[in-house]
């Protein structure tokens, strides 16, 4: 057991301690995020009930969890400090303030962590640890009768499978202020801390970009380790042209570098950020950040500190919280299911977990250590040594660039860690359906490219069959625009890896022009401009298929229905209005036309069944998929052999130069 003693009594090891995880608090008064920082119900516990006892009736039911007490931010006195009234207790066993011990145990050589707590008056500090099952164990406590600084040296030996450390703070007869608290580890011999460059790609979101600059510049500790903030501006509404730019840019000074280039997507922008970081030559790490995220800057410091101590160079990423429901963790870890070659939540995790409803200490599954295949590039830090070894992003514009990079790094023996306590807030993908808009091309093309380059399964496992099933699903849903661009994606895949760089700058224009020819892709803001809807109420087959057999029956029924003539009145008036949330294939397959609202609520599109279009596209998708399956081995060899080249520095620099020439020519043509 660890013992709480005054720090001055320890002299057995002269190596300095480095703080790697400070207790932080929100200072903007946003009560939505408070559950991520402070737990107002420290008496809550996880009780693991015996299944045998439940079966035998010894325990009638799980105990109820006490209601959450009101959240308030009045106790916060600073970024690292808070004041508790007398006889009050709070827990720091929260997402941002508990220490993720199992991740340090498994990925670093650190054997002990020191907790230091500084209070200004009488208080009790109680230290807990959790098991991989999520149960809490009291480790140690100390009563600081006069206040001051207390420390605990805590072993990491028994955290192989999971577990966290945290502490509770108890005020006695007088208010007590937590002046600071943090977790620190000893520096190894010859330790040299790393610095980083941050690369952000933006497209016509200058307000978001300026907010990034202000957020980073406002954290002095981040600025200390920041070599460059590289903003790759690929839009037409330039960041430099904003009225606030000069004022914001002056704060970062020569740390800020603006790169303006043609739009070659997130993969092009992030690859440019990697390239600029390598050319600059100072940074040990490059961190990739989305432009439309809100950042907890402490997570940047934690990612760098963690990476400094990993046994080997490691990709360190952060979690993604819901920008609209700020206490909701959207994803806890990402993996690629190689049986179907598609991304999925990591095993033993759950999506959309609300810390406002269930805090860290009462969420058992979150106490297991989670291993991931990749980290989303909403926040992902890559050592520059890995960039030199593995290369830049896959030249795919958007989609699959982050997942493929993690898989590629894994094949090089490199680990990716999604580090708890490092996170951003981002719009969740559940708020949009980008599988049927212009991004459908990239979803399809890039998944095939990634599978051909990396899939360990013969002919990609289930992936090709799922691909054709998706096309059929879109066809019976009257989503012909999505199928058209997906078919083009397959044709590009068959043309070989050479098309990736060759089309990265102009394929989007083709996709948008092509979709404009389809009524299902035309979103009209004014719903009154459409003809009257023929009928109201729920459409047929309104419930979701519950079983595979039922799904197959619905799909076959939808296919057979395509042989029937289209109702004439359905071509002059939409049969029914279908909200975006209800626009599922088993509903749309029962209709001849529908007025379908867009997922972002900006308008609606008129879907119309077209027998000729259906037959032509079905034949094309069958032929293309058969050709891809027949030529799988040859194409896989081509993509794997070409991968180091088309993700390499030379190929990307040629693309940067070619895009710059095109932009210059366009500018001259306008003059």
Describe the protein's architecture and organization:
With 671 residues, this protein is an alpha+beta fold. Helices cover 33% and strands 22% of the residues. The protein has 20 helices and 26 strands. Strands 12, 13, 14, 15, 16, 17, 18, 21, 22 and 23 form a ten-stranded mixed sheet that branches. The termini are far apart.
Structural class: alpha+beta
Cα shape: globular
Profile the largest sheet: 10 strands, mixed
Radius of gyration: 28 Å
First and last CA, distance = 76 Å
The helix content is 25-40%
Kindly report the average pLDDT value.
90
Multimer state: single chain
Number of helices: 20
Quick one: how many beta strands? 26
Can you tell me the residue ranges where pLDDT is under 50 for at least 5 consecutive residues? Answer: 1-11, 58-69
The portion of residues forming beta strands comes to 15-25%
Chart the SSEs and their pairings:
Elements: E1 4-5, E2 17-22, H1 51-55, E3 76-78, E4 81-84, E5 89-91, H2 101-107, E6 112-119, E7 123-130, E8 136-144, E9 148-155, E10 165-171, E11 176-186, E12 196-202, H3 206-217, H4 220-225, E13 226-233, H5 245-252, E14 256-260, H6 265-280, E15 285-290, E16 294-295, H7 298-309, E17 315-322, E18 328-331, E19 334-337, E20 342-345, E21 353-354, E22 379-383, H8 384-390, H9 401-411, E23 416-426, H10 440-454, H11 463-476, H12 480-495, H13 499-503, H14 507-515, H15 548-561, H16 568-572, E24 577-578, H17 585-588, E25 593-597, E26 604-608, H18 611-630, H19 632-646, H20 649-670
Parallel strand pairs: 12-13, 12-15, 13-14, 17-23, 24-25
Antiparallel strand pairs: 1-9, 2-11, 3-4, 4-11, 5-10, 6-9, 6-11, 7-8, 7-10, 15-22, 16-23, 17-18, 17-22, 18-21, 19-20, 25-26
């Amino acid at each position: 057991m660890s013992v709480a003693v005054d720090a001055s009594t320890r002299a057995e090891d002269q190596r300095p301690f480095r703080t790697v995880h400070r207790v932080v608090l929100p200072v903007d008064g946003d009560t939505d995020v408070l559950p991520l920082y402070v737990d107002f119900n420290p008496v809550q516990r996880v009780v693991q009930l015996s299944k045998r006892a439940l079966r035998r009736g010894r325990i009638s039911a799980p105990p109820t969890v006490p209601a959450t007490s009101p959240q308030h931010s009045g106790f916060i006195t600073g970024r690292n400090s808070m004041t508790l009234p007398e006889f009050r207790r709070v827990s720091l066993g929260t997402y941002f303030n508990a220490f993720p011990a199992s991740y340090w145990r498994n990925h670093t050589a650190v054997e002990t962590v020191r907790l230091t707590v500084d209070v200004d008056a009488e208080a009790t500090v109680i230290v807990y640890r959790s098991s991989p099952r999520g149960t809490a164990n009291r480790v140690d406590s100390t009563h600081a009768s006069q206040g001051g600084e207390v420390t605990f040296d805590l072993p990491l030996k028994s955290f192989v499978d999971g577990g966290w450390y945290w502490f509770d703070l108890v005020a006695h007869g007088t208010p007590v202020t937590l002046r600071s608290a943090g977790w620190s580890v000893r520096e190894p011999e010859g330790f040299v801390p790393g610095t980083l460059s941050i690369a952000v790609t933006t497209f016509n979101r200058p307000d978001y970009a300026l907010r990034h600059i202000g957020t980073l510049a406002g954290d002095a500790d981040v600025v200390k380790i920041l070599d460059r903030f590289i903003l790759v501006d690929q839009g037409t509404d330039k960041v430099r042209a904003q009225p606030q730019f000069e004022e914001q840019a002056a704060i970062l000074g020569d740390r800020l570098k603006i790169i303006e280039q043609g739009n070659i997507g997130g993969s092009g922008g992030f690859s440019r950020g990697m390239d600029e970081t390598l050319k600059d030559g100072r940074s040990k790490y490059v961190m990739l950040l989305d432009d439309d995220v809100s950042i907890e800057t402490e997570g940047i410091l934690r990612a760098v500190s963690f990476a400094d101590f990993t046994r080997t160079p490691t990709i360190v990423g952060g979690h993604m919280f819901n920008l609209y429901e700020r206490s909701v963790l959207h994803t806890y870890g990402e993996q690629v299911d190689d049986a179907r070659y598609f991304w999925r939540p990591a095993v033993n995790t759950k999506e959309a977990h609300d810390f406002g409803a269930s805090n860290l200490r009462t969420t058992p599954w979150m106490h297991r250590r989670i291993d991931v295949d990749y980290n989303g590039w909403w926040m992902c830090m890559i050592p520059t040594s890995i960039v030199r070894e593995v290369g830049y992003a896959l030249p795919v514009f958007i989609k699959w660039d982050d997942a493929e990079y993690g898989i590629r790094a894994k094949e090089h023996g490199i680990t990716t860690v999604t580090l708890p306590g490092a996170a951003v807030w981002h719009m969740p993908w559940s708020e949009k359906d980008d599988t049927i808009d212009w991004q459908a091309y990239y979803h399809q093309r890039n998944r095939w490219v990634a599978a051909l380059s990396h899939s360990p399964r013969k002919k990609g496992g289930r992936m090709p069959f799922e691909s054709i099933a998706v096309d059929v699903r879109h066809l019976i849903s009257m989503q012909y625009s999505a199928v058209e661009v997906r078919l083009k994606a397959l044709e590009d895949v068959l043309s070989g890896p050479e098309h990736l760089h060759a089309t990265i700058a102009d394929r989007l224009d083709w996709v948008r022009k092509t979709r404009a020819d389809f009524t299902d892709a035309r979103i009209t803001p004014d719903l009154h401009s459409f003809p009257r809807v023929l009928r109201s109420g729920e459409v047929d087959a309104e419930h979701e298929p519950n079983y595979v057999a039922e799904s197959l029956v619905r799909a076959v029924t939808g296919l057979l229905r395509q042989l029937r003539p289209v109702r004439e009145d359905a071509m002059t008036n939409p049969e029914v209005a279908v909200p975006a949330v209800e626009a599922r294939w088993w509903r749309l397959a029962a209709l001849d036309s529908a007025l379908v609202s867009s997922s972002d609520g900006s308008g609606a599109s008129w879907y119309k069944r077209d027998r000729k279009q259906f037959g032509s596209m079905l034949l094309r998708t069958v032929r293309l998929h058969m050709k891809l399956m027949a030529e799988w081995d040859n194409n896989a060899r081509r993509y794997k052999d070409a991968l180091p080249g088309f993700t390499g520095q030379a190929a990307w620099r040629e693309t940067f130069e070619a895009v710059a020439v095109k932009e210059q020519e366009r500018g001259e043509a306008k003059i």
